[in-house]
Automatic annotation (TrEMBL):
Pfam family membership, one: RibD_C
Name of the molecule in the record: Dihydrofolate reductase
Gene Ontology terms, MF aspect: 5-amino-6-(5-phosphoribosylamino)uracil reductase activity
Gene3D superfamilies: Dihydrofolate Reductase, subunit A
UniProt-listed GO biological process terms: riboflavin biosynthetic process
Lineage: Bacteria, Pseudomonadati, Pseudomonadota, Alphaproteobacteria, Rhodobacterales
Species for this entry: Ruegeria halocynthiae
Ranges where the Bacterial bifunctional deaminase-reductase C-terminal domain occurs: 6-169
Amino acid sequence: MPTGHIMMAMSLDGFVARPDHRLDWLEKQPTADEDHGFVAFQDSVDVIVMGSGSYRTVRGFGVWPYAKPVVVLSRTMTSAEIPDDLRDKVEVSDLAPEDLMKSFDARGFNRVYVDGGAIIRSFLKAGLVEDMRITLVPILIGKGIRIFGETEVDVDLELVSANSFPSGLVDLDYRLKAA
Protein backbone atom coordinates (compact mmCIF):
# COMPACT_ATOMS: atom_id res chain seq x y z
CA MET A 1 0.00 0.00 0.00
CA PRO A 2 1.35 3.47 -0.80
CA THR A 3 2.44 5.75 2.03
CA GLY A 4 1.45 9.37 2.62
CA HIS A 5 4.07 12.05 3.25
CA ILE A 6 3.58 15.66 4.27
CA MET A 7 5.80 18.69 3.70
CA MET A 8 4.21 21.97 4.72
CA ALA A 9 5.18 25.39 6.00
CA MET A 10 3.19 26.62 8.98
CA SER A 11 3.06 29.99 10.71
CA LEU A 12 4.02 29.90 14.36
CA ASP A 13 0.33 30.22 15.24
CA GLY A 14 -0.52 27.09 13.26
CA PHE A 15 -1.78 28.27 9.86
CA VAL A 16 -0.77 27.06 6.39
CA ALA A 17 -2.59 29.81 4.49
CA ARG A 18 -4.74 32.86 5.03
CA PRO A 19 -8.55 32.34 5.02
CA ASP A 20 -8.58 33.11 1.26
CA HIS A 21 -5.74 30.58 0.67
CA ARG A 22 -3.13 33.31 0.06
CA LEU A 23 0.49 32.50 0.93
CA ASP A 24 1.90 36.03 0.80
CA TRP A 25 3.24 35.70 4.34
CA LEU A 26 5.68 33.03 3.13
CA GLU A 27 7.23 35.44 0.64
CA LYS A 28 8.32 37.73 3.49
CA GLN A 29 10.89 35.20 4.66
CA PRO A 30 14.56 35.65 3.61
CA THR A 31 15.21 32.03 2.62
CA ALA A 32 16.94 32.40 -0.76
CA ASP A 33 20.16 30.71 0.39
CA GLU A 34 18.49 27.97 2.41
CA ASP A 35 17.74 24.43 1.32
CA HIS A 36 14.68 23.07 3.10
CA GLY A 37 14.68 19.94 0.96
CA PHE A 38 11.63 20.67 -1.18
CA VAL A 39 13.25 19.57 -4.46
CA ALA A 40 14.53 16.34 -2.91
CA PHE A 41 11.10 15.73 -1.38
CA GLN A 42 9.37 16.30 -4.73
CA ASP A 43 11.80 13.89 -6.36
CA SER A 44 10.95 11.24 -3.73
CA VAL A 45 7.19 11.12 -4.39
CA ASP A 46 5.22 9.54 -7.23
CA VAL A 47 2.01 11.57 -7.06
CA ILE A 48 0.61 14.64 -5.28
CA VAL A 49 -2.83 14.83 -3.67
CA MET A 50 -4.35 18.19 -2.80
CA GLY A 51 -7.72 19.77 -2.22
CA SER A 52 -9.45 22.20 -4.54
CA GLY A 53 -8.40 25.20 -2.44
CA SER A 54 -4.74 24.26 -2.70
CA TYR A 55 -5.16 23.55 -6.40
CA ARG A 56 -6.65 27.01 -7.02
CA THR A 57 -3.84 28.62 -5.02
CA VAL A 58 -1.19 26.80 -7.05
CA ARG A 59 -2.97 27.72 -10.31
CA GLY A 60 -2.66 31.33 -9.22
CA PHE A 61 1.14 31.06 -9.33
CA GLY A 62 0.94 31.36 -13.12
CA VAL A 63 3.35 28.55 -13.99
CA TRP A 64 2.37 25.03 -12.99
CA PRO A 65 5.17 23.98 -10.58
CA TYR A 66 4.73 20.20 -10.52
CA ALA A 67 6.23 17.62 -12.83
CA LYS A 68 4.56 14.74 -10.97
CA PRO A 69 0.89 13.80 -11.48
CA VAL A 70 -1.54 15.74 -9.29
CA VAL A 71 -4.88 14.47 -8.03
CA VAL A 72 -7.31 17.08 -6.75
CA LEU A 73 -9.49 15.47 -4.13
CA SER A 74 -12.87 17.20 -4.17
CA ARG A 75 -16.56 16.42 -3.88
CA THR A 76 -17.58 19.53 -5.84
CA MET A 77 -14.91 20.18 -8.46
CA THR A 78 -15.15 18.43 -11.82
CA SER A 79 -12.63 17.49 -14.49
CA ALA A 80 -14.18 20.16 -16.72
CA GLU A 81 -12.58 22.78 -14.45
CA ILE A 82 -9.07 21.59 -15.37
CA PRO A 83 -7.69 23.68 -18.25
CA ASP A 84 -6.60 21.88 -21.40
CA ASP A 85 -2.90 22.57 -20.77
CA LEU A 86 -3.08 20.65 -17.46
CA ARG A 87 -5.32 17.72 -18.47
CA ASP A 88 -2.32 15.38 -18.79
CA LYS A 89 -0.97 16.51 -15.39
CA VAL A 90 -4.03 16.98 -13.17
CA GLU A 91 -7.07 14.82 -12.49
CA VAL A 92 -10.02 15.22 -10.13
CA SER A 93 -11.24 12.48 -7.79
CA ASP A 94 -13.97 12.19 -5.19
CA LEU A 95 -12.66 8.94 -3.70
CA ALA A 96 -12.19 8.56 0.05
CA PRO A 97 -8.50 8.63 1.06
CA GLU A 98 -8.39 4.86 1.62
CA ASP A 99 -9.88 4.15 -1.81
CA LEU A 100 -7.62 6.70 -3.46
CA MET A 101 -4.56 5.00 -1.97
CA LYS A 102 -5.80 1.63 -3.28
CA SER A 103 -6.12 3.17 -6.74
CA PHE A 104 -2.59 4.56 -6.44
CA ASP A 105 -1.35 1.10 -5.50
CA ALA A 106 -2.96 -0.32 -8.65
CA ARG A 107 -1.23 2.40 -10.68
CA GLY A 108 2.19 1.62 -9.18
CA PHE A 109 2.47 4.77 -7.04
CA ASN A 110 4.32 4.17 -3.76
CA ARG A 111 4.92 7.57 -2.17
CA VAL A 112 2.16 10.16 -2.04
CA TYR A 113 2.68 13.85 -1.24
CA VAL A 114 -0.36 14.86 0.79
CA ASP A 115 -0.91 18.63 0.55
CA GLY A 116 -3.44 21.07 1.99
CA GLY A 117 -5.01 21.41 5.43
CA ALA A 118 -8.29 19.51 4.93
CA ILE A 119 -6.65 16.79 2.85
CA ILE A 120 -3.89 16.32 5.42
CA ARG A 121 -6.50 16.01 8.17
CA SER A 122 -8.46 13.39 6.21
CA PHE A 123 -5.34 11.31 5.50
CA LEU A 124 -4.23 11.55 9.14
CA LYS A 125 -7.68 10.47 10.31
CA ALA A 126 -7.50 7.47 7.96
CA GLY A 127 -4.03 6.53 9.27
CA LEU A 128 -2.44 6.99 5.84
CA VAL A 129 0.44 9.31 6.75
CA GLU A 130 3.88 7.88 7.47
CA ASP A 131 5.91 11.01 8.12
CA MET A 132 5.89 14.76 7.87
CA ARG A 133 8.18 17.73 7.63
CA ILE A 134 6.66 20.83 9.13
CA THR A 135 8.59 24.03 8.60
CA LEU A 136 7.78 26.55 11.32
CA VAL A 137 7.86 30.08 9.94
CA PRO A 138 8.56 32.88 12.44
CA ILE A 139 5.39 34.86 11.82
CA LEU A 140 1.96 35.15 13.41
CA ILE A 141 -0.79 35.69 10.85
CA GLY A 142 -3.71 35.61 13.29
CA LYS A 143 -6.23 33.60 11.30
CA GLY A 144 -6.39 31.27 8.37
CA ILE A 145 -6.44 27.63 7.39
CA ARG A 146 -5.01 25.32 10.00
CA ILE A 147 -2.79 22.44 9.03
CA PHE A 148 -4.19 20.38 11.89
CA GLY A 149 -7.68 20.72 13.23
CA GLU A 150 -9.56 18.78 15.83
CA THR A 151 -8.72 15.12 16.04
CA GLU A 152 -10.94 12.33 17.31
CA VAL A 153 -7.94 10.52 18.81
CA ASP A 154 -4.39 11.46 19.67
CA VAL A 155 -1.89 11.32 16.83
CA ASP A 156 1.42 10.37 18.40
CA LEU A 157 4.57 11.57 16.68
CA GLU A 158 8.25 10.79 17.05
CA LEU A 159 10.68 13.64 16.37
CA VAL A 160 13.27 12.45 13.86
CA SER A 161 15.17 15.71 13.44
CA ALA A 162 15.01 19.46 13.96
CA ASN A 163 17.03 21.94 11.93
CA SER A 164 17.08 25.70 12.35
CA PHE A 165 18.10 28.18 9.68
CA PRO A 166 19.45 31.78 9.69
CA SER A 167 16.05 33.03 8.47
CA GLY A 168 14.48 31.75 11.69
CA LEU A 169 12.64 28.91 9.97
CA VAL A 170 12.80 25.55 11.72
CA ASP A 171 12.31 22.22 9.92
CA LEU A 172 10.74 19.57 12.14
CA ASP A 173 10.74 16.02 10.80
CA TYR A 174 8.30 13.61 12.45
CA ARG A 175 7.40 9.98 11.97
CA LEU A 176 3.95 8.88 13.03
CA LYS A 177 4.04 6.29 15.79
CA ALA A 178 2.16 3.09 15.17
CA ALA A 179 -1.21 2.99 16.90
